[in-house]
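[Protein data]
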Amino acid sequence: MKKNIFLSFVLISFSLILFNSCSSKKKYELQTTTANDTIAVTLSTVHLQKVDQLYEYTALIQANALNHIAPTIPGRIDKIYFEVGDEVKKGDKLVQMDANNLSQAKTQLDNLELSFSRIDALYQTGGVSKAEWDAQKTALEVARTSYENLLTNTQLLSPINGIITMRNYDSGDIFAGNPILQVQEIKPVKILINVSENQYLQVKKGMNAKVYVDVFKDEVFNGKVNLVYPTIDPRTHTFPVEITIPNLNQRIRPGMYARVELNYGVKENVVVPDIAIIKQQGADEHYVFIYKEGKAHYKRVNLGRRMDSNYAVLSGVEDGDQVITSSLHRLNDGMSVTIIEN
C-alpha cells in the first residue's frame, strides 16, 4: 500500500515538472514572437512654413513710479488730507506736520533779513567792514536754508500724479519711521520681463507689445518697449525689458498678473503636429519618432511656439521628414514599423 502511494506521488511530481517546462517554453516563444513583430503606425510629412515669431512672457504689473511720503525729522502729524484710493496731483499737500518749529524759524529768518538789509546799507557807505558784512550774509543764508528744510518737512507735497495706496498713521499721531502715505503713479503702468539673450538684437525700444491681463480674460492692451537694459544676467542668460501701458482709464492696477507677447517678425520653421511630440518625463525635453527606411528613429527637438494643433520646431526635424503620429508609447529607437495608409 505504501509503495503504491509513493509511486503515485512520483508520477504526479513528474507530470507537474513537464507541464511547467512546456508552459515556460511556450511563454518564451510567445515573447520572442511579440518582440519581432512590427508595429503599424501613421505618418505626417512636415514642411517649412512661414511662422510669426511670437514669444510670451509672464510678469506682474508695476506702478510707473512709487513714492513714500514721510518727513526726514520726527514730529507730530497735524493733519492727513487724503485717504487710501484717493487720486492726487503733483504738488498737492498730502500731510501737515506740527508747525511750531517752522514758525520759530520764520521769525528768526525775518529778523536776520531785516538786520542784513541794515548792515548792507552801512557796508555800501563804508560804515561796516567786509568781514562783518560776510558774517551777516552767511548767517542769513544758513537761516534761509534751515527754514526751507523745515518747510519741506512740515508741508508734505505729492511729487507725482497718482493714487494713495497706503496710509500708516492718523492725524495727531507721532511720526515714528514708517512712511505716512504711499503714492503710486498708475497712468501709465509698467511690466518688467526677462528676455533670453538669443533675442537681444531683436528687441528694440518703441516696438509694440500685446498685453493680456488675467483679470480681463482675452482683452488685449497695447504696450510699448520703453527700456532695454544694457546688461545680461550671467546666471540666467536673460536681460530685463520694460514694457509700458498707457492705462488712461486706470483699469489696470499694480500687482495684477499679466502676459506679454512680443513679435520678432516672420521666419520659416518646420511645423509638426502636436500628436507627434513626446515629452520626456521629469525633464523639459521633447522628442519625435522619424520614419526612415522602415524604421522609427528617436529624435530630440527644440520646440518654438504652439499654433492650434501644431508646433513650430526650431531644430531636430528637417523639411520633408516623415514623423510618426500614432502608437508612440509602443515604439523604441530603431524599431521596424509598417505604415497605415490614411
About this structure: Residues 1-35 have pLDDT under 50 and may be disordered. The CA atoms of residues 115 and 136 lie 8 Å apart. Helices lie at 2-36, 100-124, 130-154.
